[in-house]
Amino acid sequence: MNTNPQQKKTQEKIRKVAFAEHPLIEAIVKQLYRFSEDEQALRRMEQLRDNFEISSSQDTEHGPEVKIWIKGFALTDEDNKKGYLGHFAKIHPRKVAEGYIILHAEKEEVPLEKHPQKQRPKQKYPNWGHPILRGVEKKKAYDQLVEAQTELDKLHREFPDTSIPNVNKLHILVYSKDPNGGGNPTKKVTLEIKSTPEGKFQILSRDNTYQKKASAKVHIPVSPAISGGTLPEGVQAVQGRFAAMVELKKKKKRP
Question: Tens digit of pLDDT for each residue in 189-241?
Fold first, then answer.
C-alpha cells in the first residue's frame, strides 16, 4: 500500500535539539561508551540521527560521522558572555589504546549567528520579533491551556519590570516604534488566552487602553482650631457644624 507524502510526514519521528544532559549525549561527550565492534558504534550513530536534529551541512545518509548542535556542550565563561548556548559537535567512532571503540564528540567552531539557539540580548521591553510574540501574531494554537499559560509566564519572568501577570492574561509594554518617528515607541498590550472552536487555545493581543482616573479631592470636616494645621495633599479643610455655630456666636458678640 502506498503512503501519500502527508501521511509519511506525520509518521516521521519528530527530532529534537540535543542537549548535554541527555543520557545518550552525556555518554558520548564523557566518552563512556565501550564497543568491541564497529557495527555497535554505528548503531548508536543511527540512534543519534533518528532522535536529534542534525546540522544542515551534514549528509543525512548513513555514514561514520554525525554533526549536531548540542545545547550546553563545551561552553566556557567567555562563551557565556558572548551569548553562546551550545556548540556544534562532530561525533564519530574512535579506537582507543585499550582496544575499545568509543564515540568521540569534537567541538567545531561556528560563528554565533549560525547557531540554532543563542542568548537574547537583555532588553527592558520585548518587541514583536520575540519568539512568543511572533507566535501570537501567527495565531499559534496550543492543545492545552497550561501550554499557553506557560508562554505568558515565560514572558513575565523575562520582563518582570514592564509586565503585570493575571489569570490567563498578561499586561505588558511592547516596543512598537512608529516607522514615521512619532509617538511613544512602546505600546500597552494585553495578551489573553482564548479557546478556539476547535477546542484549542490561542493567545490573542489587544491594545490596553485603560487610563487611570484622577483622584477626586477628599473633604474632611475639620475644626477651625486645627484647620491651620498641615493636611494631606488633596484634602480640603471644611468646618464642622458645631464649630461653625461657635464661630457664628463669637461674631454676634463683637461690638
Answer: 999 999 999 999 999 999 988 776 666 555 555 554 444 555 555 555 555 55
Angstrom distance (rounded) from CA 196 to CA 198:
5
Question: Which three cell numbers mark 125?
Answer: 521591553
Distances (CA, A) of 177 to 94, 111, 158, 163, 204: 54, 30, 20, 18, 20
**How do residues 42-92 score in pLDDT, each as one tens digit?**
999 999 999 999 887 765 555 689 999 999 999 999 998 888 999 999 999
Buried b / exposed e over 74-101, threshold 16 CB at 10 Å, is beeeeeeeeebbbbbbebbbeeeeeeeb
CA nearest 25: which of 2, 45, 55, 5? 45
DSSP assignments along 62-73, one per residue: S-S-EEEEEETT
Q: In what order do the strands lie in the sheet with 86-95?
A: 18-19, 66-71, 86-95, 101-108
* Closest to 168 in 3D by CA, of 188, 131, 142, 134: 142
Neighbours of 49 (CB within 10 A): 17
Confirm whether pTM is higher than 0.70.
no
Question: How remote is the C-alpha of 108 from its chain's centroid?
Answer: 28
DSSP conformation letters of 31-66: T---BSSHHHHHHHHHHHHHHB-B-TTS--SS-S-E
